[in-house]
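User: Just a sanity check before I run the rest of the batch. Below are the structure tokens for the first item. I only need the designed sequence back.
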């Protein structure tokens, strides 16, 4: 074999080797954020099983001023279980079969992907499996969607040095956000969108600001209203941002970056003004730095749905890493 033939053979070998590697890789999962493909026959979908799926996975998102579903559901008959829908990040397959089971398959058709298989001998058996496993399914879906949003955010980030120097944290904030206001203990980042804007607040207060008490929600509302009074105002006098008292905020204990935290969701408004919208507030008990570190996302988008805007803000906040002293 002369050199020319050998070179052609080597190139062909490399080409087919690379092609084989590409074929072995899973397809990239696609689809809009917070969307589920439900594979189920029309007879089940139009009955009690379909009602239960809708009630569980399209229930209203808490903390939004108007009703929006937890997830957008697209239903397909089981015979169409092929093609583009198998590339969805989240698939729920519901069937009547000769056994009752619940199985989670990771990256079955694409990656990243969760496929939840639910089967039962009867409709009642299927309903029981859905009821029992819904919390687990929702938790997995939410974690996957947050990770997908963070992957998208990471494609283009703002310079992190100001945030790092002020608060000793790492935070993945996508480009598009600009610094609206800052001082030694406070940062306000803002992104203009067609329908309004999305906003991220970062600030710290003394660790005693949220006392161990039965009424934690009152402490957090007082804290965030004081910040609104100091830094966030409308164009007219006496139009500071406050927590809307017509809707009681929701409070959850959680963990962020392995630290105790309080998650608060509710609605904000400008006092004596017409502007309002949803917020999510995370108050992190950071004992190492002797502070309550607060990250809050809020948006103003009166003419558009706000679920996915708040999801983006949540994904930014949950990327936090508190740096060691």
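Assistant: Here's the designed sequence for the first item:
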């Amino acid at each position: 074999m002369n050199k020319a033939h050998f070179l052609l053979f080597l190139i062909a070998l490399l080409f087919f080797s690379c092609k084989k590697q590409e074929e072995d890789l899973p397809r990239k999962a696609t689809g809009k954020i917070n969307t589920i493909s439900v594979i189920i026959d029309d007879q089940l979908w139009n009955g009690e099983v379909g009602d239960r799926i809708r009630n569980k996975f399209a229930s209203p998102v808490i903390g939004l001023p108007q009703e929006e579903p937890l997830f957008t559901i697209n239903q397909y008959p089981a015979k169409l279980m092929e093609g583009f829908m198998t590339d969805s990040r989240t698939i729920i397959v519901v069937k009547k079969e000769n056994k009752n089971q619940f199985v989670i398959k990771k990256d079955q058709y694409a990656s990243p992907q969760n496929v939840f298989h639910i089967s039962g001998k009867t409709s009642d058996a299927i309903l029981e499996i859905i009821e029992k496993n819904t919390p687990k399914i929702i938790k997995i879906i939410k974690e996957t969607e947050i990770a997908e949003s963070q992957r998208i955010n990471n494609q283009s980030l703002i310079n992190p040095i100001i945030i790092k120097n002020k608060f000793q944290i790492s935070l993945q904030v996508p480009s598009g956000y600009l610094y609206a206001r800052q001082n030694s203990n406070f940062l306000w980042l803002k992104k203009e969108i067609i329908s309004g804007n999305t906003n991220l607040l970062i600030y710290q207060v003394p660790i005693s600001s949220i006392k161990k008490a039965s009424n934690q929600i009152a402490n957090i509302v007082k804290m965030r209203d004081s910040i609104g009074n100091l830094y966030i105002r409308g164009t007219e006098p006496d139009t500071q941002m406050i927590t809307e008292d017509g809707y009681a905020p929701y409070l959850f204990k959680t963990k962020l970056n392995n630290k105790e935290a309080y998650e608060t969701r509710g609605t904000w408004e400008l006092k004596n003004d017409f502007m309002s919208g949803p917020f999510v507030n995370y108050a992190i008990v950071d004992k190492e730095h002797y502070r309550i570190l607060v990250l809050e996302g809020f948006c103003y988008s009166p003419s558009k749905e706000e679920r996915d805007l708040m999801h983006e803000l949540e994904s930014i906040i949950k990327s936090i890493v508190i740096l060691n002293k």
